[in-house]
Structure prediction request, 559 residues.
Amino acid sequence: MLIKKAADIPSSEITPKNVYLNRRKFLAGTIISGAAAVAGMSLRELAEPTNVVQANTKIDDLQKSSFSTTEKITPLKDVSNYNNYYEFSTDKYEPAKLAKDFKTQPWSVTIDGQVKKKQVLDVDTIMKMAPPEERIYRHRCVEGWSIVVPWVGFSLSELIKKAEPLPKARFVEFTTVLDPNHMPGQRTGVLDWPYVEGLRMDEAMHPLALLCFGMYGETLPNQDGAPLRIVVPWKYGFKSAKAIVRIHFTDKQPVNTWNKSAPNEYGFYSNVNPNVDHPRWSQAKERRLGEFFKRPTLMFNGYDQVASLYSGMDLKKNF
Amino acid sequence: MSLIAEQTQTASVLGQGPTTNDQRPTTKSMIRWFKPIVFLACLAPLAQLGWKAYNQALGANPIEVITHSTGDWILIFLLITLAVTPVRKLTGQLWLIRYRRMFGLFAFFYAMLHFLTYIWLDKFFDVHEILADVAKRRFITMGFTGFVLLIPLALTSTKGSIRRLGGKRWQALHRLIYFSAIAGVIHYVWLVKADIRKPLQYAFVLGILLTYRIVVWALPKIRAKKTATLSGRRMELPRG
Prediction:
């Protein structure tokens, strides 16, 4: 280290005391204004409304469903402001803002692969394929939180039957729209876009599997997967693909996006299972949004009627 | 002993050179009004959480917000603490040392809040579950390690501890902060699902701050070596 002798500094270069002290005050001032700026920003954040309200179209003549739970419904403001929608952002509070101007009209869905009726359908046509039902489902995220949502839609099997799958169709693959211009998250390499999910044919045909276009009696908010999504209530949330543009029937098991991202953490099946932990955290309990205490997670998220789909399967291996 | 003298002692104990400038009476009065302001600023993140909680503005998953926010502030305060020495040396603002302990203790303060959030709001004091977590979940293990490493530093942050331990030993002990910060960043990297950009930002800053220390530690050795070779050559010169 360089050590200067005092004598090396000519007296002309010694900073006058008052300047020296001012410099210090300047620095102190800088820090204070920095702290004030932080405080100011916090205050502004406090003043801003945190919830984004969106105008959606009401869906009339909703049929009730025997699949609905009687549990307390999570408030709409939570379900529409707390979204894992990586196409927009990895921050759960951001999609509500970032998806606000996302265009969901016109919207067409390609149905192809191992089906007799390969076709491109407008979302409005799909919505009229069967009478809309309200299905109040538990929804369990792989991260350990859960919600209860009154979805609107009808069984996915209605659409599948109309497409007339061929015997080779053993799996159904769902693809989310690829639109990096309007989906900022897709401009990052966080996941391999577009988002792909899949179900085994018998899973997709199970009446609980929902083709969904609304919630809380209205069309879906953009941040919840508008205009069309899948809801598979006995599986972790990420299996329920949002904003789908393609339904592809195939004889090969689809490689779903999260499985591709971390194969040891996210399987193809991803059934809600309190006995099989995520490698990094326990799945035994969950926090229902709005509740203080955690509650135990139920096998198949409480939808025991799907158990027969997996009889004889090792669910630890096929996680 | 006054606060100033005590801090000055810390500074000299750490071998950070003469502190004559810091003993100016004007500085003393400045510290008197400036330090409480910094102290309050350090409490602002907690105040903000409290205010939002009171107004039910913490969003759909308040406990998650509290956990993430306190976690962020631990890392921020650890990085600020680690930045004090480089900034001091590079700018010559020796008085900054007086804030280092406070920043370090705030890192520990937010670490305690973070830990309390975990054992209370996440595990509800279920010791069995907590132990299983610490043993099984590597991100918990890492975070827990980072927290435990801070405890001896907080306990020995008093001037009495410096005296009892002796400057050298005290300084050696307090180098644990490097490992605590590293553990904290790894904890963050390991807990996110796919988006590691934010933890990498912390890793980047920490990397710079630790590199500075490696350079400071290694440079004199390299210089000494060079000087040795140079002087060796000089000695050989006359021989042709």
Remarks:
- The first helix of chain A runs from residue 17 to 47.
- Chain A has one domain: 63-310.
- Residues 63-310 of chain A form a domain with the Sulfite Oxidase; Chain A, domain 2 fold (CATH 3.90.420.10).
- The longest strand of chain A covers residues 145-155.
